[in-house]
Design brief:
The complex is a heterodimer of chains A (214) and B (486). Chain A has 214 residues and is mainly alpha-helical. Chain A is built from nine helices and no strands. Helices cover 78% and strands 0% of the residues of chain A. The longest helix of chain A is centred in the middle third of the chain and has 31 residues. Chain A starts with a helix and ends with a helix. The chains are: A mainly alpha (214), B mainly alpha (486).
């Protein structure tokens, strides 16, 4: 794995881990944006270099598809969630477990994946060498979703989990990219719609209280 | 054989749905559209049913209808599912005429999402491409969540959010599995994946990871235990009509699960794959039946009963033999049709009485005799009482399980498994019969004496489904002729 790819992956893992400890929704959305921006940055740069060096139509399409993917993950989706936050509340809360326990768990998750990665590095096909990092990011995102009561933060976690597959997604057929993006945006709009409706009904953004009143 | 029929059966509901959406900006058309919305939905579903039925003669003649560019395929492995999905949508849209009382979505948007949902179900059944399947799974997640949120009231938003989170994570698992296969084999077409199976055999641990991803991903969408968290909340929270439409979902998702798992078993016939699928099925059927028993809310009871039924189907399909595929698909189609009949009948009860609590119900047989009759016929069929269609489904399932286990573990294992399966069916029989007794028999309370009779459009679909149970029970070949092995 090239050092620049490794660097961008490390930054996105750190952004995902830090999102587990944020206090308010705005900060969590920012971390989502940072995670998505860094994870797609290298691929975007590769496409840009290919475009500049090759200057052919295929490279142009590649660049636009990658840019659209990067833009929707790093800008559009965070903005949709941000819009949901404006329509409801910027909730300030902590993870449901203490910060100390959360830190230990995050470090444990990261450590176990690093061990797994080192152990499996030589048996995994070269094409899939980013798989353990993707799975680490995915696990951290699920951890974020499991330890929060604010549905907008949970939605951020869901997007972070989806972004975790970005390094693998970059290899998918180019014709699928627009459909995939449209679907990702659609699911987020549906999520925000449901959260806004629930907020109207319950008057709170704590999913625990949604459960109690039902 | 190259045919546009599979593509048309996807495009037609989608296009009619889009037409509904176009009326949205024209506010002056709104009152007019409100009057024709339900008929327009019925038109969309009936046209799709006709298109689907037009494929049947070709397939019965042994043809495989294909659109190779889009990896769409209709043959004997999926036609029974396709016809059942279209039939469920058609019957539920008849029911929708009087049962739909409005909700969060405007009629045009509601119709658009319903027709899009039909398109997703057919797409899942027709697609033979991993990315195509993922796209339909993701679209199904979004569309079904919005349909759950359509129901007025608090419960639907909470259930819709839970549903969104669980199923969206599951879609990520499907994507992960798809991406691993695509990166290893360089293709996403299922036939081509089988042809390039050598690469997967070289990486058996990755192949097992892919299978696990598909089981988790689609298992959560189906509602199998332990990924079932959303199901008992979604059924009571949705409108009766939406619950009717949702009965088509397991047909598409369970057959998709089989479509995804079977090729990997063909490439790498490991017993672990069978153990994984059958294990999930077995746990689902045991816990589904046990959790359905104590429920007071009839929709929750049906939700757990569905988990039990999904367990049976996944158990049968998970044996991954030709015979088990026929048994599983027969069971799947019968179970979906019977469950639709039961859910629509219970929906009529809810619409008439305003309650789902079986303790507050009773004595409705006089006022709702046709609904009661169709409910009990469908319930008895579901539990496998002869001569109804469910009997043959259970018989096929038991036969397959017995044969498989006899070769694997000897007569003791086979007989023990049969006893277990019969016991689970007995539990289902008891709680479904008890629910009939609690809802329809006895003396009605003062409040229930004022209950109005059920409208024709609400009992007719349930009676048709009950009649299907009798007809297919007496002549199982009607359904069996539509089912073939891969």
């Amino acid at each position: 794995m090239e050092i620049i790819v490794l660097g961008s992956l490390v930054i996105s893992v750190v952004a995902t881990a830090l999102a587990c400890f944020t206090r308010n929704t705005r900060q969590t959305v920012r971390f989502l944006s940072v995670q998505a921006a860094t994870i797609g940055f290298v691929e975007l740069m590769y496409c840009l270099i290919n475009l500049l060096v090759g200057l052919h139509f295929e490279a142009l399409i590649d660049f636009f598809a990658t840019f659209a993917e990067w833009f929707s993950c790093a800008i559009v989706i965070p903005l949709i969630i941000y819009w949901g936050m404006i329509k409801t509340e910027n909730v300030t809360d902590k993870p449901v477990i203490s910060i100390r326990k959360a830190t230990i768990l995050v470090v444990a998750i990261a450590g176990s994946y690093i061990i797994l990665w080192i152990g499996r590095l030589f048996s995994l096909p070269v094409k899939l060498d980013v798989l353990p990092v993707s799975m680490l990011m995915f696990s951290l995102s699920v951890f974020l979703m499991a330890t929060r009561r604010d549905p907008l933060k949970i939605l951020v976690g869901l997007n972070m989990a989806e972004n975790a597959l970005y390094p693998l997604l970059a290899e998918s057929p180019i014709s699928l990219v627009p459909v995939m993006l449209a679907l990702m945006i659609f699911v987020n709009i549906v999520g925000v719609f449901v959260i806004i409706e629930a907020y109207r009904e319950y008057g709170t953004l704590s999913i625990t209280e949604w459960r109690w009143t039902s | 054989m190259y045919s546009l029929l599979p593509l048309l059966s996807l495009v037609v509901p989608f296009f009619i749905g889009i037409l509904h959406l176009f009326t949205y900006p024209f506010w002056f058309l709104e009152s007019f559209f409100k009057k024709i919305a339900k008929t327009a939905l019925l038109f969309g579903t009936s046209l799709t049913l006709l298109l689907v039925l037009s494929m049947v003669p070709y397939i019965l003649a042994g043809e495989v209808l294909e659109v190779p560019q889009l990896s769409l395929c209709a043959d004997l492995t999926n036609i029974a599912g396709i016809v059942s999905v279209a039939l469920i949508f058609f019957l539920t849209s008849i029911y929708n005429i009087k049962a739909e009382k409005g909700g969060r979505l405007k009629p045009s948007i509601y119709n658009f999402f319903l027709l899009l949902f039909l398109c997703c179900m057919l797409g899942l059944l027709l697609s033979r491409d991993l990315f195509g399947i993922y796209l339909f799974v993701e679209l199904t997640v979004g569309v079904s969540v919005i349909l759950v949120a359509h129901a007025p009231g608090k419960l639907s938003t909470e259930a819709a959010f839970k549903y969104l989170i669980i199923t969206a994570i599951s879609a990520i698992f499907v994507l992960l599995g798809t991406l691993i296969v695509f990166m290893l084999t360089g293709t996403s077409n299922i036939s081509a994946v089988i042809a390039n199976g050598d690469v997967l055999i070289e990486n058996p641990h990755l192949l097992m990871l892919v299978v696990a991803c598909f089981i988790i991903g689609l298992g959560a969408d189906i509602g199998l235990i332990p990924f079932h968290g959303w199901l008992p909340d979604v059924f009571p929270a949705s409108t009766p009509t939406i619950n009717g439409f949702f009965c088509a979902e397991p047909i598409a998702l369970i057959l998709t699960l089989y479509t995804l798992i079977h090729p990997f078993y063909t490439i790498y016939p490991s017993d672990i794959i069978i153990v994984l699928v059958v294990g999930v099925g077995l746990v689902s059927m045991i816990f589904g039946a046990l959790l359905a028993y104590p429920q007071k809310d009839f929709m929750r009871m049906i939700a757990y009963c569905s988990i039990d039924e999904f367990g049976h189907i996944v158990f049968a399909l998970g044996l991954l033999t030709s015979m088990s595929f026929i048994a599983g698909q027969y069971y799947l189609v019968n179970s979906a049709l019977m469950k639709t009949g039961m859910i629509l009948s219970l929906g009529s009860v809810f619409i008439s009485t305003g309650t789902r609590n079986m303790d507050s119900l009773g004595g409705l047989f006089g006022k709702m005799n046709k609904t009661a009759l169709s409910y009990i016929i469908c319930a008895l069929s579901l539990t496998g009482v002869p001569p109804l269609s469910g009997f043959y489904a259970k018989w096929l399932l038991y036969n397959t399980a017995y044969d498989f286990l006899l070769h694997l573990g000897g007569i003791f294992t086979a007989v023990s498994a049969l006893i277990l399966l019969v016991c689970i069916s007995m539990i289902s029989f008891i709680f479904l019969l008890r629910s009939f007794h609690r809802i329809f028999m006895g003396q009605p309370t003062e409040n229930l004496k004022k209950v109005n009779k059920v409208h024709l459009t609400m009992w007719l679909p349930t009676i048709i489904l009950a009649a299907t149970a009798i007809l297919v029970g007496l002549q199982p070949n009607i359904l069996l002729s539509l089912i073939g092995t891969a």
